[in-house]
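Q: My labmate handed me this sequence with no annotations at all. I'd like to see what the chain might look like in three dimensions before we decide whether it's worth expressing. Could you predict it?
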Amino acid sequence: MKTYHADVTRDGKFWLIRVREIDRSTQALRYKDVAAMASDLIEIMEDLHNDEYDLHLNVHLPPSVKDHQARAEVLRAEAQRKQAEAAAENRAAVQELLALGLSQREAGDVLGVSFQRVSQLAKSS
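A: Here is what I predict for the chain of 125 residues:
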């Protein structure tokens, strides 16, 4: 099965679509129509049906958008690390209170969480 690659860029109000393998272009008004327009172009120019080829879209974004995406990924990873640290601190707090002789219900009341949550934290450590 042949694979076609469509390079997609934004130009004003339109998405420009260039299919490399056939060296032809088309356009779409909305991004949701890009794959269909590329497929139509391939099928017309190559006399194929949609089950006879694969289409890969390569969307070219402005560098500033890529920068925002990269920063968002860094922040997501940092948030995951911080969430794991917070969970570890919650577990440590529960363990300390239980070691002081508090019941799970008392520990929950003191920490402002349900005793079920205290039970979960106690079991996960």
